[in-house]
Structure formats: C-alpha cells, structure tokens
Amino acid sequence: MLICVLALIAVLVIAVVWPSGGAAAETLSPVVGKDDQQRIAFLTDLGYTVDSEAPSVREVLIPDEFDDVFQQYNELQKDAGMDLGPYHGKRVKCWTYKILNVPGEGEVRANLYVYKDKIIGGDISSTALDGFMHGLTTYTPDASAAAGDSTTTGTQAAGTTQAG
Predict the structure, then answer these.
(1) What does residue 74 show for φ and ψ, rounded to 5 degrees?
(2) Secondary structure of 22-36 as H, E, C letters
(3) Which residues have C-beta within 8 Å of that of residue 80, sequence separation ≥ 6?
(4) Which residues on neighbouring strands pair with residue 113, listed in sequence order?
(5) What's the number of domains the chain is made of?
(6) What is the mean pLDDT of the chain?
(7) Can you tell me whether residue 42 is helix, strand or coil?
(8) 3-state class of 69 per DSSP?
(9) Which distant-in-sequence residues (6+ apart) come within 8 Å of 111 by Cβ?
(10) pLDDT tens digits for 18-39?
(11) Residue 25 belongs to what domain range?
(12) Are 82 and 27 contacting, i.e. CB atoms less than 8 angstroms apart?
C-alpha cells in the first residue's frame, strides 16, 4: 500500500513540475473500461501501441479535498476532457500499461483510473528522470517531444464506447 501511495505522489509531483499546456477541452463522459480489452481499445484509439502482456493494477484513493498537487493533476485531466472532481473520497483502480510506440522517451506508461468499470481519468508519462506527463490525449509522433502541448482530446477515441 505504501508503494502505491508513493507512486501516486511521484506521479502528482511530475504533474506539478511538467507544464500541461493547451486549451481546456470539453469534459468527456466516462468511457467503458471494464476489462483489458476495453482499456487497451481506448488507448489504441488514442494512437498508442500497448503491451497487453502484464498490466499492473493498484487501488488509489481520490482525496476528499484536493491539495495543490492533486489540483494541478486534475487540471491535467481537465485539459484532456476528464475531471476527477466528482470522485472525491472514492477508491478507484489504477491500471498501468506499457506503451510501445513513443520512441526516445525511455519507458512510457499509460495510467488509467477506473471507477465502477468506467475510465474516469489517467495520464501518459515517461519514467525517465527528465520525462514527460500529459493527459489521455491523441498521440501524434511529432508531439512526443512537446508532450504537454497536445490539445487533442480523446473525444473521437471514446466514440461509441462512451457510457453515460
């Protein structure tokens, strides 16, 4: 449990340090993410190639009140059309997948936060010391060098898999 808390803190610290850039996007309805197939399809629709062999999962508590770090992380979510605000005090599953098609950035991971079988938020991040982090936005190879500058949301990727 301590490792999960430390991992979340590390992710949140990166979110504060790394600029999220871009205009605010329309908030998406949570996307169905009940099983690996649906979660991988969501990431694939965003343009990512996913290593489906061994995703990891951990439970994360969305705080009752957002401190400055979590508020900044939620701004990252809002930039991608998502919002963790409605999930204050909820325990969610964080599914982590290895991303294979972002070259030159070290190991890249997708973190998907799932509540009641719906993807409610997440991020794409590099584990490199000088790595990047951005919301769940459409991948374009030219944008990987400026990871925080993408303003394309996953609206099209969610398509018919949106749940209301």
Answers:
(1) -70, -30
(2) CCCCCCCCCEECCCH
(3) 25, 121, 134, 135, 136, 137, 153, 154
(4) 94, 121
(5) 1
(6) 79
(7) helix
(8) helix
(9) 11, 94, 95, 96, 122, 123, 124, 125
(10) 333 333 344 567 889 999 999 9
(11) 2-161
(12) yes
Tokens standing for residue 117: 């079988």
Over the range 91-114, which residues count as b (16 or more CB within 10 Å of their CB) and which as e?
ebebbbbbbeebeebeebbbbbbb
- Helix intervals (H) in 46-154: 68-79
Looking at the whole model, is its pTM more than 0.90?
A: no
Q: Which run of H or E residues covers position 16?
A: helix 2-17
The amino acid present at 74, given as its one-letter code, is N
Max intra-chain CA distance, the chain: 38
- Please answer whether residues 125 and 112 qualify as being in contact, where contact means their C-beta atoms are separated by less than 8 angstroms: no
- Residue 37 per-residue DSSP state: H
Pairing of strands 118-126, 133-134: antiparallel
Token readout for 50 is 């996913």
Instruction: For residue range 89-138, list pLDDT tens digits in order.
Output: 999 999 999 999 999 999 999 999 999 999 999 999 999 999 999 999 99
Give the span between the Cα atoms of 62 and 87, in whole angstroms: 6
Give which of 71, 81, 89 is closest to 30, Cα–Cα: 81
